[in-house]
Write a structure and sequence with these properties.
81 residues, two-stranded antiparallel ribbon, alpha+beta, 4 strands, binds zinc ion, 46% helix, flat, 21% strand
């Protein structure tokens, strides 16, 4: 039972690491990758509002795993000069 759950956890981690390596950017969670807020005008049609504050309008965010990878690489580089 414990071995099974450990294996599952490792598989999830490996899959996530692969995902971070293949596509380091994910869609912004606040605007779902659109890059700006959506509002409706008085006729009920969707229109774009201000750019998203979280991703500054580009709709992408760096994955947590990729940020960790970049940080550890920076530390390694700073330490091995
Ligand atoms: Zn956003």
């Amino acid at each position: 039972m414990l071995a099974t759950s450990t294996l599952l956890l490792l598989a999830t981690l490996a899959g996530y690491a692969l995902l971070c390596a293949v596509s380091p950017f994910g869609d912004c969670r606040k605007c779902r990758g659109i890059g700006y807020k959506l509002t409706t005008d008085r006729k009920g049609r969707p229109k774009r509002d201000k750019p998203c504050r979280r991703c500054k309008g580009h709709g992408k965010r760096l994955r947590v795993g990729r940020r960790l990878h970049n940080h550890s690489r920076a530390v390694h580089h700073a330490g091995t000069r």
